Amino acid sequence: MSFRSLVLTNFNEFAVEDRSLAKLEGDNALIKILATAICGSDIHGANGSTGRRFPDQVMGHEACGIVEKVSAADDSKLVGKRVVINPLISCHRCDLCLIGKEHVCRSRKVIGVTKGVDGAFAQYVIAPSRNLAVISEEVSPTLATTVEPLSVGFHAVIRAGLVKGDKVLIIGGGPIGQAIGLACIRVGVGDFVISEPAEFKRRYISKYDFRSVPPTELSKIYENSTRPTVVFDAVGNMHSFSDAFNYSDVGARIILVGMDTPNLAIPSYEVSADERTILGSYCYTDKEFKDTATWLGLNIALVEPFISDVTTMAKAPEMFARFQEGSFEYNRVVIAQDE
Ligand SMILES: [Zn+2]
Ligand SMILES: [Zn+2]
Q1: 150-280 belongs to which homologous superfamily?
Q2: How many A from CA of 39 to the centre of ligand 1?
Q3: How many CA within 13 A on the CB side of residue 206?
């Protein structure tokens, strides 16, 4: 059996190609894809600038589909179910996996990211059955793709140990910043501000009724009031990281989520003498992913603004060209499969 895939044939070049299906074995499932979101990491990877995507790859790691077949009889209850796919494939045997930190398993692979592990910009994908989270059919396949970024936001909030009474600053108002805002609401913390320089993104954020300001206004906001106890850096470059120190309170927790640049300088006295804590946050645990799928089913209206555009696999190359060109204003674009 062959099926259509969107292949990154070379950096900035795509083609829709027929690929043949690998044999289904082990504890894997065959999923007929309904919708897959284009992540910022796909956009930056596709032009070769991050070194995190490869020619001849099928990208796509934020996907919703229907289980068509499973190889293990134990998983047969999944057949016919609408699912979202946790793209992290871990060994489930090592010390980290055994303490529930399978998302940082040293031998982890990521569907649609790791070389040789084809992703979900395709009509079909194969994934371990244990990675599938059943999602309510009330959630459209397009919106269901948000479970992945929403889980990233939720894990960051868990890493921060966020509690009622915390005052939060989220730096970066893209989808991950928005997902962190949604996760704050999920855990009952409403006191947060999103710092975002792009006017169109701030307009977008207002669809959730979240408060967002340009970074240039932060000093005014915190001049006469207490500073944030928790700062999420959803950008990860020297501008955002400096703001995290400049505008956080003594003793604050700074959660580094964004991966814009591989090296950051730390203002050492603001860590040592003011006892700030820097915490890294990556992806999510499998439990957080599954809990987020359930949570989304109960909070559809809250998340609705997340997806800005829907396209098809045939039109996706054109969409990637628009991303690279730079003037296209979007939030999250989803590739929907047309049967
Ligand atoms: Zn992603
Ligand atoms: Zn492991």
Answers
A1: NAD(P)-binding Rossmann-like Domain (3.40.50.720)
A2: 4
A3: 7
